[in-house]
Amino acid sequence: MDLSLKPISGRAFLAYPEMLDFLLLEIRERFFIDVKNIKNSDSDYSEKEISIFPHSSEPLLFGNLLYIPQWNEEKNPYWAATVLEAPALLDFSSIKQAALSLRNIQRNWGSYQYKLFRRAALIVESLPYINPKPRSFPYLIPESPMGLFTLVKKELILCSAKTSSPLAAGCLSLVEDKIEPPSRAYLKFQEALTRLYSAKGSIPQKNERCLDLGACPGGWTWVLRQLGCEVLAVDRTALDEKLMKDPKVRFIKHDAFTLPLEELGPFDWIFSDVICYPERLLEWVKKILASGITKKMICTIKLQGDIDWQIIDAFAEIPHSFVQHLCYNKHELTWFYCE
Prior knowledge:
This protein is α/β, with parallel strands linked by helices. Helix content is 27%, strand content 23%.
């Protein structure tokens, strides 16, 4: 171990871009940790906190990176793009020393910075190259470990070689098609499929039968057709004109949750982006799983008003499933199921 590397307690959580308020709310309401003063502070946090860091037992905020010294939970917050699971402080006296120390710990490092941008960029330039370009779908996320570091002072780095995500800073950027898709919802769906493909090795295949609920105007159906799937699309409003003319797309104008799916199944995949309360979605999901008409599902959990974390945990506790916030999600989570 590098003698300048000092392990510290707890964990640090990097919020998704523009999602810091949601992360702080989850920390407060789901994990019952008081971060209200951080949220309401008018300062930039840096000078006051650096003077007591890492001796403070109180949560500290560095830009969008929330450090909680006394974290003792096994679960991580959904609104964290990545988690520093073994945080440490790294003292250094030069750019060369900082980069060498990080490389001696492990090869791959992502960078999150909220200040000292030029100095951090020089460190990044001295580390093995991580391609920041958007990825083409379908994409398999590499399994190699990805650390994260941030400069909290000119000669002090907060870092962790062990993080919760193999992506740099936890975010996935995909190549955009600004012409063909009928809506931008296709990006959220492509990310969801990428996440499941990388986690479970499963992605819709050519000629597989898929059900797309809440399909209008057809962003998810469009992605499935690009993969060669046959799609039954359900919504109260018709799809984009091109999709309505596609012989491999069948459209039913109907309420998604009252459709007698047992009479239409089985399906290789079922997808839902329906706007509804999480309680109703959970009830419907359990009904589908009990029917046995599919073994693979992806559903958007739309969060409206106050979040009932017991409902979210109920989704996560379903066997063969997990819940995740996506980079292309807004105020919503995504539930994945794959036997």
